[in-house]
Amino acid sequence: MHKTENADPAELAKFSDLAHRWWDTESEFRPLHQINPLRLAWIEEQVTIRGREVLDVGCGGGILADAMARGGANVLGIDLASKALKVAQLHALEAQTPNVQYREVSAEALAVERPASFDVVTCMEMLEHVPDPASVVRACSTLVKPGGHVFFSTINRNAKAFLFAIVGAEYVLNLLPKGTHEYAKFIRPSELAAYSRAAGLALEQTRGLEYNPITRRYWLSADTSVNYMLAMRKA
To answer: Per the domain annotation, does 174 fall within a domain?
Structure first.
């Protein structure tokens, strides 16, 4: 198992320590539970997942992977945080989620093992936690079939994103555990688009994700200044 390929041990430890709280909708993972229906609806606007082979890279406790499996996809979720994966597997058993499997393997290692195997690849809220995000993007491109779709979400790198995603979300509103994000690891949309182009992926759509702390509501918009998602297509 090549756990050190493209992973930060401190990041893996951070998410492993919180693993038992992944499926508590009032825990630190509440934001993920709240945005998950928005993410899934956006994906399904662009591609039919029912009956398709879908890979969720950096699946964590399985919130998106589980939802896609319930939407009729055959899902493989991968991560390098062992405890989070065990939580995902346990949840799938308890909830009797069909057609979902989990593996402790890096995207890069799986790309060597199973190139061009998936109709859809998702990589959400993960790129800002690895040392080399371009490497993950290349792996996602290798894993998806020609003509297939790849979906990324991450956080922009600018003053507003620092204020909203770190100061606001972690220290003022306590939406996320303190230390969840490092500003230096945030990725501008232009950088992610460049990584994707270099990996043979074409940009099809961008979408922003916004939050109102008063109503505690999330919604999708054209504003990519903080949280954003990119839809890609393999040539």
So the answer is: no
